[in-house]
Amino acid sequence: MTMQHDYVTCTSFAENEQHGVQSQEKILISNGHPGKPWQPARSKIRGCLRRVQTAMLSLAGLEWYCYAALGVLTALMSFCMDLTIAKLLRAHQWLYGCLEGNILLQFLCWTLYPTCLCALSTSFSHSICPQSAGSGLPEIRTILSGVHLPDYLSLSNLFAKLIGLISTLSAGSTVFLGKVGPFVHLSNMLGAYLYRLYATACGDKQIRSQGEMLVVASAVGVASCFGAPISGVLFSIEVMGSHYSIRDYCPCFFAAVCGSLTYRLLSVFSREQETVQAVFKTRFPSELPYQPPEILIFAFLGLLCGAISCVYLYSHRWILRFVRTNKFISRVMATEKTLYSATVAFLLASVTFPHTGGFFIASQLSMKQLITSLLDSTRWNLISHNVTVAQEAPHSLWQEWSPPGYSVFYTLGCFILIKLWLLVLACTLPLPAGYFMPVFIYGAALGRLLGEGLAYLFPDGISSGERLSVINPGGYALVGAAAFAGAVTHTLSPALCALELTGQSTHVIPILTATLISNALARSRHQPSFYDGISLIKRLPHLPSLIRACPKLSSIQIRQFVVPVGAVLQRAEGVTGVQHVLNSSKENEFPVVDTHDSFTLLGTVTRAQLQTFLLSNQSQDLCKSLEDECSIQPVKLQLSTDATVKQAHCIMSVLREQCVFVTEMGKLHGVITWKEMKNMIEDLAKEI
Amino acid sequence: MTMQHDYVTCTSFAENEQHGVQSQEKILISNGHPGKPWQPARSKIRGCLRRVQTAMLSLAGLEWYCYAALGVLTALMSFCMDLTIAKLLRAHQWLYGCLEGNILLQFLCWTLYPTCLCALSTSFSHSICPQSAGSGLPEIRTILSGVHLPDYLSLSNLFAKLIGLISTLSAGSTVFLGKVGPFVHLSNMLGAYLYRLYATACGDKQIRSQGEMLVVASAVGVASCFGAPISGVLFSIEVMGSHYSIRDYCPCFFAAVCGSLTYRLLSVFSREQETVQAVFKTRFPSELPYQPPEILIFAFLGLLCGAISCVYLYSHRWILRFVRTNKFISRVMATEKTLYSATVAFLLASVTFPHTGGFFIASQLSMKQLITSLLDSTRWNLISHNVTVAQEAPHSLWQEWSPPGYSVFYTLGCFILIKLWLLVLACTLPLPAGYFMPVFIYGAALGRLLGEGLAYLFPDGISSGERLSVINPGGYALVGAAAFAGAVTHTLSPALCALELTGQSTHVIPILTATLISNALARSRHQPSFYDGISLIKRLPHLPSLIRACPKLSSIQIRQFVVPVGAVLQRAEGVTGVQHVLNSSKENEFPVVDTHDSFTLLGTVTRAQLQTFLLSNQSQDLCKSLEDECSIQPVKLQLSTDATVKQAHCIMSVLREQCVFVTEMGKLHGVITWKEMKNMIEDLAKEI
């Protein structure tokens, strides 16, 4: 039951399976120590285990079990995290409720709780692994493009990010940050760890590379975060870089389904839900969800979201640059990160205190409640004016949006005006946090405002043809959420994410239309996306974002960056030469040229081959040349110095080459490994 | 409002836009003839048009208008086709109804109508363009992988395929063939035509290649066929080959949304539907669509579909080979295609005649009615036993499945047993036809049978926890349809297609689970997919399907296939040599080597450069060498003879290179263009 389209690997699948079985067997057999008790029982169990193992590996290759494990573990992590955060949020609400009547104590409770949590998150993550701060997505994109970033996939980072993220999210809607980005980073760290296990079990003959595992992990991250497998896969396709290998398509889907199935089953077992359902299930009317003319209004909403996303992205880049360049703040950030976090969190909490500004922006609602309330299909403005209905209805979430004496339009307007700047400020916090969910909610509020406005203008609904249908502001909120999130991240997967989160596909066409339009506006004039902006400001060696920001870089040739090869052997090299090269260089592979004068590249030899050559010649005391004893491995692919950096990057990342030789008219000119590529990209970044 | 991630092109977008504007302007200006009347009015209109054009091209590049046009035109074509087919089918039904009472006449009407239509389809398509027969998808995949197949994208083929497909589909469920495959082919032909227009308008500086337009057209084909944009895009990702360029992602979505929006709006305007809705809208209960334990049964259904798909694929390959190898049939097929089609159609119609075998397989239902009835959420077996309910209910589609005196299980069982062989037979018909929809319906019947069986076993439903929920056989039918179609085509996009067709995403997890499992079973042991099978039997030069069928081919090196370069110039070549090379070869680009002895590759010169060189030397009578006058363009990428065919194919298709030089130790050894690549793949195919 192997599921594969292995068009790129050379090893046949059957061979590899067999190899996997054998290597696993060896591990098991070597565990049998002769001196231990119950030998017969133990050998029976060993036999059983071996049979199970053989049966499992004959069903599918080891990598498929790794994908399944990745999905299940990530979902478990996501679920436990959600549970912990929910408990911490409830504790805060309970404490705040207990202090009813004493405004000062309530203020302290409201502000100090998130302040402490943010301080904890910052200090914890920075003391264990400073790389765990931020979303992590720009770094993951860089790693996926082929560049090695040390420490970003370590287990200590996983631990720091997990605890830090729980603290951040427990601070609730006050700091207004999300889960998706860091969660994709978490699942990548888990994927990298599982890959190390897989590589150990398979030895040299593994058929999957780490890059493939990380692409799968990106899909799993999104899928396990919301139980949304399809948008997870689309996300991994979009985020991957310039080319997506179809070989990763089935593994992505498989792992994403494992993850989201586990996530949803866990919520069934915990009695949160009756069956496997969407996370933010909506109840939009399915018979006549909207009238055809409304598509034009949805398109306008897309345009609006695109325009506001430009404002947001500009402010975001500005504040990131300000924090880095302002002397006072950058000094505080360098030495007192915790203090900075605490101060900003306190500021944010003070503004959103329910007895002051928070009264107008529904600040008592948690992130989940914000989405649920905004996607509600009832028309708030109509209900709030209809006093009988409002009084009869039990206390529901939308009433937070309509405090006594204030219209829904007022609160939604305040939310949109205030939250944008609060969010921009929150983005500077140096702690593990995601920025997708806040943007999604903000977009939902934008859409909701438009929807409520339309419902106010057309209280009886819109008619086209025979039937009349009332306006559903929840639909507008959903479309706005997808369009705004899509515009900010320059992706289309939020459209699918919106569909999968709500479990209804009535609005598929409006959502896609609005997301495309908002994307078109946001991408115009080479404006960088949210992640591109972070990549550029953090100076990450991510070529695609550099080229999107400055398209003229795509024509720069590798000529000026190529580093000459350090150690080169010639065809007729003797023992002394080889000895010298081995001592002077730590590389594992050495290029062989015709002669040191002609410098025509013939191929490569490995360090092991050279060592064997030295050994055999020391013992025999014969003076053979390199060519006689070592088989020179020919170089399959050569670039000329006229190739552009972009072409070199594309070839190396698509073909997953670790090293490419650069020749000019047959002569060896230099070599590009990922280390050199990283330097090249960093040099290019300076030219912007 | 440019929507782009142009990571691969070198030209900046803004430059190109400007170029587009200028070239368009020139065309308009040149239309002004001085001798014609109403000069002022005409020049005003011209000015207006120019301003509109400039405004449009400043909004987005010309290619985006091409994508939109592609989507809209394909959707229009799809809608008109559906309308014509519906009318022709209704005419047949009306005639058949009029002859009620006279079985002989009814038999003649039932059999001769599809026989004539199939004969018409065959003779029409073969007389205009023989390449229009069949699905066309295997050929499109081959073209997308880079190989040029003449006549497959011509306008005459478009015309032949369109008329042929309408005739085939008007024969109805008797011949049991579908629309998707040929429709993707149709949209590709339209895409190729629009690309030619685009290339003419842009001149040399177009930034999109034909390959990109065809990828977009593949997405549009599926999207316009059902109004399902997301599965269209996923289909184009899967079908493309080994690597999907993210640059095509936004265009694919944009065109697919244009197509499906147009398709759905057209059905609103024609008053088929009230608003933009799914084509086969279901009404599954959304509160508790299924109990968690049912996921195991869905997984079993996936396994069942996978197993039966293997039987189907084996029979399909067998019959295709039989038709090609059997002397009698192959002679008939070579000379009397129309006769063969008519005979097979008559045979199929005789078996499905409602007064004989058709009575047990609901043969009176059309393809659309078959899907709608199978996806119905009521439990047929329960209703058919409950006489009062059955009599009270108006005549509905499910009653066709439960003829008086026979149980639903009997008819579903007969359908599954008989239709498989009828479908295998219908696949040999040499006319334009798709094979996706029949497979989808067959899978739905499989799922329905399992669902009805479960509903019979658990009449009160399944309980887990507090609430009891009745079995929904429609859900099983949907899952079965996606799983079987996915297994037959070795793709996952049918899962999404099922969701988009029904407009409900309650069953997303079961559908994905079952499709993954059925795919896993169908892909085991390197069995070729439906399309791979056709590619192999038709000996199409499609490398991925060859390698999937025979993985050891992936390690074959290009060494044995490389063709030496015909005309080579040396650096110091004089006038005579250049003259000789120009006369002896028709190439546009010539490699330049150091000397004819060393053969070290230096770069290339174009035919135009050589002609200039000749001209200047003839007039001046000086004997300059090539090197002095022509700038030798260096070769950016070289392969060695040790690279595998697969690697060469991958590099050429990913980087969209038209020509790659093969060197060995710096010496020019040969050249690979797509022509040579095609020959290589054909040579490889002989080795299977």
From TrEMBL, chains A, B:
<keyword id="KW-1133">Transmembrane helix</keyword>
<feature type="transmembrane region" description="Helical">
    <location>
        <begin position="158"/>
        <end position="177"/>
    </location>
</feature>
<dbReference type="InterPro" id="IPR001807">
    <property type="entry name" value="ClC"/>
</dbReference>
<feature type="transmembrane region" description="Helical">
    <location>
        <begin position="213"/>
        <end position="237"/>
    </location>
</feature>
<feature type="transmembrane region" description="Helical">
    <location>
        <begin position="407"/>
        <end position="427"/>
    </location>
</feature>
<feature type="transmembrane region" description="Helical">
    <location>
        <begin position="295"/>
        <end position="314"/>
    </location>
</feature>
<keyword id="KW-0406">Ion transport</keyword>
<dbReference type="InterPro" id="IPR046342">
    <property type="entry name" value="CBS_dom_sf"/>
</dbReference>
<keyword id="KW-0869">Chloride channel</keyword>
<keyword id="KW-0868">Chloride</keyword>
<feature type="transmembrane region" description="Helical">
    <location>
        <begin position="339"/>
        <end position="362"/>
    </location>
</feature>
<feature type="transmembrane region" description="Helical">
    <location>
        <begin position="64"/>
        <end position="85"/>
    </location>
</feature>
<keyword id="KW-0813">Transport</keyword>
<dbReference type="Pfam" id="PF00654">
    <property type="entry name" value="Voltage_CLC"/>
</dbReference>
<dbReference type="GO" id="GO:0005886">
    <property type="term" value="C:plasma membrane"/>
</dbReference>
<dbReference type="InterPro" id="IPR014743">
    <property type="entry name" value="Cl-channel_core"/>
</dbReference>
<keyword id="KW-0812">Transmembrane</keyword>
<keyword id="KW-0472">Membrane</keyword>
<keyword id="KW-0129">CBS domain</keyword>
<dbReference type="GO" id="GO:0034707">
    <property type="term" value="C:chloride channel complex"/>
</dbReference>
<feature type="transmembrane region" description="Helical">
    <location>
        <begin position="439"/>
        <end position="458"/>
    </location>
</feature>
<dbReference type="GO" id="GO:0005247">
    <property type="term" value="F:voltage-gated chloride channel activity"/>
</dbReference>
<dbReference type="InterPro" id="IPR050970">
    <property type="entry name" value="Cl_channel_volt-gated"/>
</dbReference>
<keyword id="KW-0677">Repeat</keyword>
<keyword id="KW-0407">Ion channel</keyword>
<protein>
    <recommendedName>
        <fullName>Chloride channel protein</fullName>
    </recommendedName>
</protein>
